[in-house]
Amino acid sequence: RPHEPVYVPKGERKVQFDVPPNYLPDKYQNMAERILNRFGNESLSSIPIKQIAIPDLSLPLSLSRRDNFSLFLPSHRKMAGHLITLFMGMRTIEDLLSLAAYCRDRVNAQMFVYSLSVAILHRPDTKHLPVPQLTEVFPDKYMDSSVFHRAKEEANVVPPGSRNAIEIPLDWTATDADPEHRVAYWREDVGINLHHWHWHLVYPFEGPPVAVQKDRRGELFYYMHHAIMARYNIERLCNNLPRARRLMNLREPIPEAYFPKLDSMVAGRAWPARPAGFVLSDVNRAADAMRFDLSDIERYRDRIMEAVHTRQVRNGKGGVIQLDEVTGIDILGNMMEASILSPDPAYYGDVHNMGHVAISFAHDPDHRYLEPFTIMGDATTAMRDPVFYRWHAYVDHVFQVFKDSLPPYTVEQLVFPGINVTDIRINTPGANPNTLNTHWSKSDVDLSRGLDFTPRGSIMARLTHLNHDDFSYNITVNNSNNKELIGTVRIFIAPRFDETGRQFTFHDQRMLMIEMDKFTTQLKRGQNVISRESVDSALTIPFEATFRNVDLNRPSDQDIAAYDAFNFCGCGWPQHMLVPKGTKSGYPMDMFVMITNYELDRVNQRDPTGCREGVSFCGLRDLKYPDLRPMNFPFDRLGRTGVGSLNDFLTPNMKVQPITVRFSDIVKPRQPSRGQTVIRL
Ligand code: CUO
Question: What interhelical angle do 217-238 and 328-337 show, nearest 10?
Answer without folding.
Answer: 80
